[in-house]
Amino acid sequence: MKIALNLKEEETLAILESAGLPISKHELSAFFRKAGHKHFRVCKDQILRNFLQGLQLKHHPAEKPDADFSWD
């Protein structure tokens, strides 16, 4: 998604922070490492869900994400 939306690192971090999930640059870069790398980290559902909520806030600020909605 980062590539498709042509997002820079700072933009991606701001999107996550706007959704209430601030992460560091190091944590973000770990998602893009090769699976065998010692600092590789799997992007879990919570990170992706917050990223999508942040995108919604960025592009449709008048619409708040449905807090009652859950994938679980």
Radius of gyration: 13 Å
Order of H and E elements = HHH
Indicate the structural class.
Answer: mainly alpha
Average residue-wise pLDDT: 85
Amount of helix: 40-55%
Largest sheet: none
Query: pLDDT below 50 for ≥5 consecutive residues: which ranges?
Result: none
Number of helices: 3
Distance between the termini: 23 Å
How much strand content do the residues show? under 5%
Shape summary: elongated
Give the total of beta strands: 0
Can you give a write-up of this model?
With 72 residues, the protein is an all-alpha fold. The chain has one domain. 43% of the residues lie in helices and 0% in strands. It has helices at 9-18, 25-30, 45-59. It is elongated. It starts with 8 loop residues before the first helix and ends in a 13-residue tail after the last helix.
Structure in a nutshell:
The protein has 72 residues and is an all-alpha fold. It has one domain (9-59). It has helices at 9-18, 25-30, 45-59.
Protein traits:
single chain, 72 residues, mainly alpha
List the helices and strands and how they pair.
Blueprint: H1 9-18, H2 25-30, H3 45-59
